[in-house]
């Protein structure tokens, strides 16, 4: 009973997004959950039905007692067929190993990404503020900017293309 309450309390969509699971893994988990809920529903339907047969009622209703006797004999002699579920267990174990492998792969990717993000955050925290930067510092960091400015000066271009369209013309004349 506690497992049903725990399963109902789990928000699977949040888990899928939080863990960053792949589309294949999410689809496989959703298919497995659907099969599980269908099996539980069918089990609930059949377990609520009565399992006993009142043969005395049929003897009193039917005229042909031989049919009732034969049905009762067949009912008593009935042995349900047992199935070998090892193939299904192996399939579930194979799915489980795939899921565990995918989960470990995802965890490794997340760890690598987390380390990269921590390095980026440390770099941002250690960076100098923009007020302390000079043109020489920017030129050293990105030499292409210096080359572009030098080329524009040589060609006599004193305005940056697209600047007036984006920021407007600030000249008073």
List descriptors.
173 residues, 0% strand, 73% helix, mainly alpha, 9 helices
Describe the structure.
By secondary structure, the protein is mainly α. The protein has helices at 2-9, 12-19, 23-47, 55-61, 65-77, 86-126, 135-141, 143-155, 163-167. The chain is built from nine helices and no strands. The longest helix is centred in the middle third of the chain and has 41 residues, at 86-126.
How much is the radius of gyration in Å?
A: 37 Å
What count of helical segments does DSSP give? 9
Which stretches are low in confidence, meaning pLDDT under 50 for 5 or more residues running? Answer: none
Order of helices and strands: HHHHHHHHH
Q: How do you describe this structure in short?
A:
The chain has nine helices and no strands.
Please write out the topology.
Layout: H1 2-9, H2 12-19, H3 23-47, H4 55-61, H5 65-77, H6 86-126, H7 135-141, H8 143-155, H9 163-167
Helix pairs in contact: 7-8
